[in-house]
Structures are given as structure tokens and as C-alpha cells.
Amino acid sequence: MTAVLEISGLRKTYRSRKGVRKALDGFDMVVEAGQVHGFLGPNGSGKTTTLRTLLGLIKPNDGRMAILGREVPRLLPEVAGQVGAIVESPQFFGNFTAETTLSLLADAGGVNPHRVPAVLELVGLRDRSKERVKTYSLGMKQRLAVASALLKEPKLLILDEPANGLDPGGIREMRTLMRTLSESGMTVLLSSHILGEIQLICDSVTIIAAGRRVTSGSVSSVLATHASATVKVRLEPGVDLAGAAAVLRAAGAAVTLEKDHFTVGNASNPAQITKLLAEKQIYVAELTPVSADLEDVFLELTGTAPVDGANRQVDQVAATTTQGGWGQ
User: Fold this and answer.
1) What does the pLDDT look like over 160-170, one tens digit per residue?
2) Residue 260 in contact with residue 236, Cβ under 8 Å?
3) Which of 57, 94, 165, 301 could make an S-S bridge to 214, C-beta 3.0–4.6 Å?
């Protein structure tokens, strides 16, 4: 497949009175043609900095970037007409209608005016297109932003949190639109915190943490590589869950108590669970592997999983070390 977007060794630092902060620290990413590619990372990880740098809004300190085979930002004017993008919260003139807004953008960009009703139809704003933007909800403004990015019929569409403010029906419609665009040959780079949607819609993903890529590949391969070692344990009715959990924790198991069961998060050898509990006359009624999803992988790789009794701060990433599973 042909790479539509290539980033290699991208670095960006910011200086302040507190010192130097590395927003990007040798970041790499490749997006293949015709894919919907998910770009994931916690707040402050460098996602928006990457997108703004890619679009020539921020100057990098080092690294190489290319869009459609052209080096950017040096040759960005050659490919700008083939890229549609919304980054962060879009801003529009509140007294203009959606139709007027898009018509002005089309005129400024030399786009056929017939594209305006076409994109309004695509994003579901056809019947509200003559209303002033200041009367729009957040979700409707987000639809308008996506419409503006589609005006040029771009080869590469870059969307930063396109589902922001959308209701469940709108999120599903956006998912369908992204797939339709991909099937038509458009490449979509999608940044989102709705990991369930990313897992449903994307062909491939890149996960960034602390300015560095921590994993990338097809969604299926990323999930397979980080298969869960978690098992769900249900005991016979009336048995003390907390007491059983204490037995396993004493042996090094990572146990999370739920209402009517508990999970063991590092169970490389689930047979040890039944053995240890049986020795205490506690018998297991159910022992079920828990499938990993993209949220589990994200939390593990970015070190942002919640910790009991602690309040994680923005930019605070847990130290990650390679550990074997419990019960080997």
C-alpha cells in the first residue's frame, strides 16, 4: 500500500520559566492510502501538536514529514488543496448561516459551489442550513466543521475529535460517513478519545504517549499483541468475595473486586487461582478469560489506568516496566 502520510523522528520542545517540555520526542507515524487510521493518546501526549505541526501551524525542532509524497511544511502549498482538516474546536461567525459559511469558504478556496449542498447533505445539516450558526448546538457546529473539511473532496481528511458534542445517533452517523469516505478512496486520520468507536471504525491505529509512539499497526494486530491475561472469577453463592480476594492478593495476584465477582488482572496461569482457593476450602463456580479491548490496551501502554486512592494529574504517566504474569 502507498503511504499518504509519513512522520519520522518528529521533535518539538517548548520553553518556559519552568524549563523545557518535550511535546514531541522522536515521534513516528505512517498512514496508508484508503485507510481510516486512529490517532490515540491521553491529554497532553502530543496529538494536537503533531497535527498542527503537520499542517504548518507549528514549526518543529527536528524530524521529517510528508503528505502525499511531498515534504511538509516546505512543500505544503503543493498538497494543501488535497487535505481537509479540523483541529481542536472549530470557530465560525455566529451571525452567518451554515450555507453562507460554506459558500464563503468554497469561494475563498476556489471550490465548485455545488459542493456546498452536497456536504451539507452528507453531514445531516441540509434542513438546518439556513439557520444562524450561533443557534447551533455543539454537535451541529461539529457537523459543520466536518462539512467544511470535506468541501475540497480531499485525498486526506484529518479530523480531531469529530464526535465531540454528538448524540449517540450522530456518533453512529459519523462512523458510517467515515467508512463511506474510506470506501470511496479517501484516507481519514481520526483523533478521538472514544476508543470503542475507534475500535469499530478504524483499520489501523497509532498510540502516542509523552511525545513518543508506543504502538502502531492494524487494530486486530494491536489487540492480538496485547492479549489480556485477565480472568473473571465467580464463586459459589454466599462465599466471602473479599476473603477470597485477600488469599489471592497475598500470593501476588492483581485482584479487582466487583459486585458479585472479581477479576484477576495478571493471571498467566489461571489454574493457580482454583488451586490456592481450594486449599482454603473456597471453590470457584466460574473462571472466564476477559478479552482485551482497545481501551485496555490504551490504558496499559500509556500508563493512564486509574489507581485506587490516587488522583492522576494531566501529563502524569505511570512508570512502565515489563513484568511477567502472576502464577507462572
Assistant:
1) 988 888 899 99
2) no
3) 301
* 122 torsion bin: left (phi>0), alpha (psi -120 to 50), beta (else): alpha
> Is domain 229-290 in CATH 3.30.70, yes or no?
yes
**Could you say which DSSP state residue 326 is in?**
B
SS3 36: strand
Q: Is 81 left (phi over 0), alpha (psi -120 to 50) or beta?
A: alpha
- Angle formed at CA 171 by CA 169 and CA 177, multiple of 5 degrees: 105
3-state secondary structure of 232: strand
And the C-alpha cell for 171?
456518533
Q: Which tens digit of pLDDT belongs to each residue from 256-310?
A: 999 899 999 878 788 999 999 999 999 999 999 887 789 888 988 898 877 666 6
Helices (H), the chain: 47-54, 76-79, 98-108, 115-122, 138-150, 168-183, 195-201, 219-225, 241-250, 271-279, 294-302
Contact predicate 28/9, CB 8 Å: yes
C-alpha cell at 94: 455566529
This prediction's pTM:
0.81
User: Cell numbers 453463592 correspond to what residue?
Assistant: 237
CB neighbour list of residue 171: distance below 8 Å, 6 or more residues apart: 163, 194, 197
Q: What 3-state DSSP class applies to 218?
A: strand
Identify any residues that bridge with 97 across adjacent strands, giving them in sequence order: 132
CATH topology of domain 3-223: Rossmann fold (3.40.50)
Strand locations in 17-60, DSSP E? 19-32, 36-40
Domains of the chain, by residue range, sit at 3-223, 229-290
